[in-house]
Automatic annotation (TrEMBL):
<protein>
    <submittedName>
        <fullName>Sodium transporter</fullName>
    </submittedName>
</protein>
<feature type="transmembrane region" description="Helical">
    <location>
        <begin position="107"/>
        <end position="126"/>
    </location>
</feature>
<dbReference type="Pfam" id="PF00474">
    <property type="entry name" value="SSF"/>
</dbReference>
<feature type="transmembrane region" description="Helical">
    <location>
        <begin position="268"/>
        <end position="295"/>
    </location>
</feature>
<feature type="transmembrane region" description="Helical">
    <location>
        <begin position="63"/>
        <end position="86"/>
    </location>
</feature>
<feature type="transmembrane region" description="Helical">
    <location>
        <begin position="146"/>
        <end position="167"/>
    </location>
</feature>
<feature type="transmembrane region" description="Helical">
    <location>
        <begin position="531"/>
        <end position="551"/>
    </location>
</feature>
<keyword id="KW-0472">Membrane</keyword>
<comment type="similarity">
    <text>Belongs to the sodium:solute symporter (SSF) (TC 2.A.21) family.</text>
</comment>
<feature type="transmembrane region" description="Helical">
    <location>
        <begin position="494"/>
        <end position="519"/>
    </location>
</feature>
<keyword id="KW-0812">Transmembrane</keyword>
<dbReference type="InterPro" id="IPR038377">
    <property type="entry name" value="Na/Glc_symporter_sf"/>
</dbReference>
<feature type="transmembrane region" description="Helical">
    <location>
        <begin position="315"/>
        <end position="346"/>
    </location>
</feature>
<feature type="transmembrane region" description="Helical">
    <location>
        <begin position="397"/>
        <end position="415"/>
    </location>
</feature>
<feature type="transmembrane region" description="Helical">
    <location>
        <begin position="422"/>
        <end position="440"/>
    </location>
</feature>
<feature type="transmembrane region" description="Helical">
    <location>
        <begin position="21"/>
        <end position="43"/>
    </location>
</feature>
<dbReference type="InterPro" id="IPR001734">
    <property type="entry name" value="Na/solute_symporter"/>
</dbReference>
Length: 581
């Protein structure tokens, strides 16, 4: 941990003196740092403990939250990132202020802040503390109570993570994330390998065969109505939840806004999509191994991963594992702090309080706000102590308050020209009230439960809210159409492999679902179904054809479109006419 801190300091020394350096890492992040930071920002103790616990309890259906993120990652890389970088936006609300007005900017900042302060940051810190407490006997080590241990671990994690975010800026976050990401990959590979060897009495292959032929239903990713993630939700609300997270959530997209150029940004985003496909192996298969080793005798499903770690990981690696675990928690926490401070400084303080603030003042204000937010989080987080059961689902239910209206407003803002600001404000207010009523309110107030899965509610509200915005745009359109103004600060030439890699990534998502399905490893009458290889071939053949077409024909057209877009709106229209001809 000390080594990571030292390298992060050396890499960022003298590079946070202006706002671009502090908030966007000097617009100098390369694909590797972006991918590493995105991965560590996304993966935390919440997934290590929660996903393995879900796999131990039921099956692999919860992998949908991770694997299907590839769809959103591709949309971000191919379409939205060129828009963001082309407009040189520092924050998402900044884009919304230019598309709509300052009121919409403030509404979205409030949504982000409430989500970060009340849901995301406390859950990150608490789940990290929970993981440390389950893996290491903190009460016994220090002779303090369990409650005292929770407070101690949360404060230690919070203070160290805050130092990265507050004093180092985005680049320190990205560098430390990437270094910790290497450790996470090592542990991620090591734990299932050692688990298989333990399960197979010293044989890796015997252990792998054991989970394939004994209780193969545990390897099924096709969720039923009884599972927490039914398979159908992948094609409804899951799409929009992932699209919000990967394409409009400030604490995730901020490292892509700091890309050295468009090519490096696209490369980093897409590489992170490939890492997401490894999540079932790193963060769910250990839970299945735990089921085979311990049966259903564990006191809590959340003990599956800690129990496995305790039994299979050599004691001399426990310190390294703790560093990796804390690194994953730091990453999510410091990314949230950095983004919240950025939103406050650039979207509230500068436009509303001090329009003449210079870079030095903005960085100072950002550090003060980040410090205050960190302190508040450290007091709020331990209060989740009595709500640890079901934390995984609870967090996703609460994010529904802000994820759907924001992604609806962003997409309508980009794809239309006449929808006015009032439409976005109406949708935000409508969503918060309606979402509460559908998920909790009718039950609390009238003792009547709405029999619709909350992920399906995501999709229903998305469609309704887009419809509301379009109707308002028809009824009361803007006097002058919105014109996208290109003002790129970096090179806007796309990565030459962005289209073929996107196609390949989509095919791997389909293959992953086939592997973990009743015709794959979850087949009950053998290793895999007779239709397995035929299905794989049916996916790979069109994939090869599409990749060939993208290299031969589509790459040049795509580059031409982006080149015209990065210059001016009329140039885009001329380019479209030329491509049509």
């Amino acid at each position: 941990m000390g080594l990571v801190s030292w390298i992060s300091y050396l890499k960022t020394k003298g590079e946070v003196s202006d706002s671009a350096g502090y908030f966007l890492a000097g617009r100098g992040l390369t694909g590797g740092f972006i991918a590493g930071s995105l991965l560590l920002t996304n993966l935390s103790a919440e997934q290590l403990i929660g996903l393995n616990g879900q796999a131990y309890r039921t099956n692999l259906s919860n992998m949908a939250w991770e694997v299907t993120a590839a769809f959103a990652v591709i949309i971000m890389a191919v379409y939205l990132l060129p828009k963001y970088l082309g407009g040189s936006f520092t924050t998402l609300p900044e884009f919304l202020s230019k598309r709509f007005d300052e009121g919409v900017r403030r509404y979205t900042v409030i949504l982000f802040m409430l989500g970060y302060i009340l849901v995301t940051i406390p859950s990150m810190l608490y789940s990290g503390a929970l993981a440390v407490l389950k893996l290491f006997d903190v009460p016994g080590l220090f002779g303090i109570s369990y409650v005292g241990s929770v407070w101690l671990v949360i404060w230690v994690i919070g203070i160290i993570g805050a130092l990265y975010a507050i004093f180092g800026g985005l680049k320190a976050v990205a560098v430390s994330d990437t270094l910790n990401g290497v450790g996470l990959l090592i542990i991620g590979i090591l734990v299932p390998v050692l688990g298989f060897i333990t399960l197979g009495d010293g044989s890796l292959l015997a252990g792998m065969k054991e989970i394939a032929v004994q209780h193969p239903e545990k390897l099924n990713s096709i969720g039923t109505k009884e599972d927490s993630v039914p398979f159908g939700t992948i094609f409804t609300g899951m799409i929009f939840a992932n699209l919000f997270y990967w394409a409009s959530n400030q604490y995730v997209i901020q490292r892509t806004l700091g890309a050295k150029n468009l090519a490096e940004g696209q490369k980093g985003v897409l590489i992170s999509g490939f890492f997401k496909l490894l999540v079932p192996l790193f963060m769910m298969i250990p839970g299945v191994i735990a089921f085979h080793l311990y049966g259903d005798g564990l006191e809590s499903v959340d003990l599956a991963y800690p129990a496995l770690i305790t039994d299979v990981l050599p004691s001399y690696l426990s310190g390294f594992f703790l560093a990796v675990l804390l690194g994953a928690v730091f990453s999510s926490f410091n990314s949230l702090l950095n983004s919240a401070a950025t939103l406050f400084a650039l979207d509230i303080y500068k436009p509303r309080i001090n329009p003449n603030a210079d870079d030095k003042k903005l960085i100072q204000v950002s550090k003060v706000f980040g410090t205050l937010l960190a302190i508040v989080s450290l007091f709020v987080s331990p209060m989740l102590m009595n709500a640890s059961e079901g934390l995984w689902d609870l967090i996703r239910r609460f994010t529904g308050f802000f994820n759907i209206p924001i992604i609806a407003i962003v997409l309508v803002g980009i794809l239309t020209k006449y929808v006015p600001a009032v439409a976005a404000k109406v949708v935000i207010i409508f969503h918060v009230i309606t979402y509460y009523m559908l998920v909790w309110g009718t039950d609390h107030l009238f003792n009547v439960s709405v029999p619709i899965h909350f992920i399906h509610i995501y999709a229903i509200l998305f469609v309704i809210e887009v419809g509301i915005m379009l109707l308002i745009g028809k009824w009361k359109p803007m006097a002058a159409p919105y014109q996208y103004r290109a003002d790129p600060k970096v090179d806007m030439n796309p990565w030459k492999f962005v289209l073929p890699i996107s196609i390949f990534l989509l095919s791997l998502v389909a293959i992953t679902y086939v592997v973990f399905s009743p015709i794959g490893l979850a087949y009950v009458n053998g290793m895999v179904s007779p239709y397995f290889w035929t299905t794989i071939a049916a996916i790979l053949l069109p994939t090869g054809a599409l990749i060939f077409a993208s290299i031969k024909y589509w790459n040049q057209k795509y580059a031409g479109y982006l080149s015209a877009q990065s210059q001016s709106e009329p140039a885009v229209m001329n380019e479209k006419k030329r491509l049509t001809l």
